[in-house]
Write a structure and sequence with these properties.
alpha+beta; Arc Repressor Mutant, subunit A
């Protein structure tokens, strides 16, 4: 009986005794949190009541090499970048506590700001179409492309119609390009048919004819050692490549003085004939040499009688 009473008394003592001490890790976390709160209070900074699950405190604000850009560290780990506007607007200073929602919002705004600045830098060199900017941002792997484009539009930094007008004026003036080539290029830049046609309205028929004539004169000056037929063909090919309409090309050819005198044409034939004769004579002689030289001169558009005259002169010198 005595032993049984003693066991009951011990049982009661255990039930009323102190709770088991917390684990060392929990004690460490609690002490760390208390130290943070104490430091904030010592500095006269406000202390927020935070969730016991997780607290997010800015532990470092680091300036980047890029102007007006900063790295934010939370709980001693890099979290996200911001610009000076976000830094001031949200008072992102060391010791400030944030919620997860705050962090997500700041990351999104930081991404938008960085992408917008990248787009401005891209626009700094020349006008761009909307598609060009979208492609550039995709290449740089920005995620908030839609909001960036909308912000650029609201600030009148993107306007495909104005881009088309500027592109037509520049390429017709500086590159002497015809309307068809300009049109093809504008479509590759993502412009709508309406914007392309609006831009081409800037290119008058008189200006097209003027540019075609200038381009033809340049080609003609480089082809003076060719036959009249070959010069005509070269000019036609260049005007077509540059995107001019067939009627503009024909008027240009009609106005050019391409025909040469017989002496000028034969002089050009001699220059090309001598080169061909020298080249073919390395592997051929006799009939084969004459045949290959004749075939070459025929392909260049020289008259048969001039070619025969050149061959006869060469045979006399053999």
């Amino acid at each position: 009986m005595k032993k049984e009473n003693e066991r009951k008394r011990e049982s009661k003592l255990i039930e009323l005794g102190p709770s088991a001490p917390s684990s060392p890790s929990e004690h460490s976390k609690e002490s760390k949190g208390n130290r943070k709160r104490h430091n904030l209070e010592q500095k006269g900074m406000p202390v927020k009541e935070t969730s016991p699950d997780k607290e997010f405190v800015i532990t470092k604000v680091q300036a980047q090499k890029a102007k007006n850009r900063f790295n934010i560290y939370i709980n001693d780990e890099y979290a996200f970048p911001v610009d000076d506007n976000l830094l001031v607007q949200h008072r992102l200073i060391k010791g400030k506590e944030l919620t997860k929602e705050d962090i997500d919002e700041l990351r999104a705004k930081g991404e938008l700001s960085k992408g917008y600045q990248a787009a401005l830098h891209y626009l700094n060199f020349k006008m761009r179409s909307e598609k060009e900017i979208v492609d550039y941002l995709k290449k740089k792997e920005y995620q908030t492309i839609g909001p960036i484009i909308e912000k650029l539009k609201s600030n009148r930094l993107i306007n495909d119609e104005e881009y088309a007008k500027s592109f037509v004026r520049t390429n017709s003036l500086l590159k002497l390009e015809g309307p068809k080539k300009i049109e093809r290029t504008l479509y590759t830049k993502g412009l709508s048919k309406g914007d392309v046609l609006t831009g081409l309205d800037e290119y008058s028929e008189d200006k097209q004819q003027e540019n075609a004539s200038k381009l033809a004169e340049k080609v003609l000056n480089r082809q003076r050692n060719k036959s009249s037929r070959e010069m005509t063909q070269k000019i036609r090919e260049q005007l077509m490549t540059h995107g001019f309409d067939s009627d503009v090309i024909q008027r240009t050819l009609d106005e050019l003085e391409i025909d040469q005198s017989d002496d000028e044409e034969y002089e050009a034939l001699q220059m090309q004939g001598e080169k061909a004769w020298t080249r073919y004579s390395r592997k051929h002689s006799g009939y084969d040499l004459i045949s290959k030289t004749k075939t070459f001169l025929y392909s260049k558009g020289y008259p048969r009688e001039m070619i025969d005259r050149f061959i006869e002169e060469k045979e006399e010198l053999q």
